[in-house]
Amino acid sequence: MVGSIAARRAKTKRGRREILKHEPKMVENPKVLACLRGHATSSVVNGVLKEFYSLRRPLAKSFTRKNSIRPFEAAGEAPLEALLAKNDCSLFMLGNHTKKRPHNLILGRLFDGHLLDMVEFGIEDFVSLEAYTGRKRSLGIKPCVVFKGDFSSDPNLEKVKNLLLDVFRGPNASEVDLAGLEAMVTVEVKDGPRIVIRHHRILLKKSGGRLPRVELEDTGPTMELSIRRSQFAAPELMKMALRQPKGLKSKKVKNISYEEGLGDTVGKVHVQKQDMKDLALRKMKGLRKGALKAAEQGENENDNAEN
């Protein structure tokens, strides 16, 4: 899609702006999620697609028309890539429902207009946002994402974690306001393997001190997913997708290191050996050169007298 747009010659200012929009950038735009329906869907699949579209807005597009895209089958990637390139989407969520794979959900992403990786989930349990009572959290805001469980036990689980983080990440934020931390998503891995996703609302209450007391309230949606099929990118392709431009790489500064975890900056200062005689001390009368010489002469005279 990018190549076809760049091959044309713009005749208007709007056309030139459209070409510049699709050119490579130092910092890419946030990824847009495409929510697609397969040739046959169920009420559970439609509910999950609707909830993810609401949570991801405005970085999401919903397609209600049914299509026969099957990305795991042979030659099934081409129509999917063409549809996503036409709508400028880098993430996709495809839901379908068959007798062999009931309540099926495929989650994947693209790189350079081509399919990078995707994972197929089975929806075991689903509770929508409307089923929860009480005050609902605001939709379309950037949440805190917490991963629970041993995702590092399996390399495939680490890739699933990275894929889910791309879905919930949203736009990049340079600063965070404490009052703006309203939503929280917990992703827990269990035996099977199964993925349990819960959404919470963060409540900041009075604690009698400077920092507030934090409480979590379940707001939904809640879903339990089982991993079925997966197709991950080759290590060489993933390395190319994770490569950063030279302009974004920070130059290494001498004698400065960063602690892992807290991210504190530690600096090392090299100081030359100091000569204690040249220190600028308080000039006391007893420490003057004349007084010191007189004191030394007095000590020598006393020693001679004793001898």
From TrEMBL:
PROSITE patterns: BRIX
Highest rank taxon of the organism: Eukaryota
Pfam families named among the record's database cross-references: Brix
Coiled coil: none
Domain Brix: 31-236
Molecular function per GO: rRNA binding
GO cellular component entries: nucleolus
Major location category of this protein: nucleus
Statement: the UniProt record of this protein carries the keyword Nucleus: yes
Keywords: Nucleus
Subcellular location: Nucleus, Nucleolus
GO biological process, one term: maturation of LSU-rRNA from tricistronic rRNA transcript (SSU-rRNA, 5.8S rRNA, LSU-rRNA)
InterPro entries (alphabetical): Brix, Rpf2
PANTHER family: BRIX DOMAIN CONTAINING PROTEIN, RIBOSOME PRODUCTION FACTOR 2 HOMOLOG
Family: Belongs to the RPF2 family.
Name the UniProt record assigns to this protein: Ribosome production factor 2 homolog
The organism of origin for this protein: Rhodosorus marinus
Source species taxonomy: Eukaryota, Rhodophyta, Stylonematophyceae, Stylonematales, Stylonemataceae
